[in-house]
Amino acid sequence: MLILDDTKITSECPALVRYVKSGDGSTNGTLVLSHSAVHTFLREHSESDKRAHCTLPDCQECDLVSADIITRCCLRYLMQPRYVTMEQKSHLHFVCQDGSVLKEHQLVLYAAKYWYRHCDESSISGEIQELVRNFLLSENFLTCLRIQSVSIIGHFLISFNQLTGRPSCLKQNLPLWTNLIDSETTKFHDQYKEMLREWSHLLQLGLSSGFIGEIDRVFWNSLGPESFLSKGRSRYNSFLIGDAPMFCPQKPKTPTSCMLLAPTDDGGFQTLFNFEIGR
Q1: How many CA atoms does the CB half-sphere of 29 hold within 13 Å?
Q2: Which of 71, 122, 214, 272 is deepest in the core (most CB within 10 A)?
């Protein structure tokens, strides 16, 4: 059962609904649609096939808004240009790229918390798959992670086996069908889980410490260039260890790379690793 705050609903939607008090003197009441446009919208975007599962007396009016329209609404809202980046002015004061204050946005917290759940209930059409793919590959997704870290309790919780140290329970935060979109996105789930294994503690600390919202402490570049999260902005330099090239010059090609050398038996030096310094 979903408990709604009638005061908030009537203040946010004064022209659409009205609150009718109960005649028995109790605090109970009923929210009534006061504008025909609401009824028209619900009928046009309803899932009529769900009427058969309705348990309310008036089943012919029991239309549910299509999951597709809610999914598109959440994704398009989170993909707005103002959510490309988010600046922290003080401990709990976050400002979006357009200068607006995050806490004043009406839908962003709901969209950040439930977008992937609505995706799982959707028709998984080609349009929705493309929306999800573009969202995950955008900087807006990293801003969404930051909003989740700041505002949603338990969103990044992960439990580990005390004997093996391996994750035993991981909260779902992406659509279940993400790996079915195309060959590139098949890796998204595994890459996301890998990031959570390393950084879930920091992301979850955002609600109870001085690190609130500071996901730039994550070493995004260390996740590897193939990770869809590797382009995240980080305040620290990070290193990715890889195989040294067959030919390595005495001096690094760029000021952002360095070599690890070790002496050989004949007194010379051998390149063991070639480091690429991240942002």
Answers
A1: 14
A2: 71
Q: What is the CB neighbour count within 10 angstroms for residue 197?
A: 14
Helix, strand, or coil (residue 95)? strand
Q: Classify residue 224 as left (phi > 0), alpha (psi -120 to 50) or beta.
A: left
Phi/psi of residue 263, each to 5°? -75, 145
* Strand ranges (E), 72-190: 86-90, 93-96, 158-160, 167-170
Nearest CA-CA partner of 86 in 75, 95, 76:
95
- Can you tell me the distance from the alpha carbon of 140 to that of 110, in angstroms, rounded to the nearest whole number? 15
Dist CA 183 CA 175 (whole Å): 16
- Give 27-33 contacts, CB < 8 A, sequence gap 24+: 31/4, 31/6
Closest CA to 223 of 274, 270, 273, 279: 279
| 279 residues of the chain, pLDDT tens digit each | 345 566 767 776 777 777 787 777 777 777 777 777 766 766 666 665 444 444 444 444 444 567 888 899 999 999 999 999 888 877 678 889 888 888 888 889 999 999 999 999 999 999 999 999 999 999 999 999 999 988 887 788 777 667 766 666 677 789 989 888 887 778 888 899 889 888 888 888 755 567 777 888 888 888 888 889 988 888 887 666 655 454 445 555 555 566 666 666 676 666 555 555 554
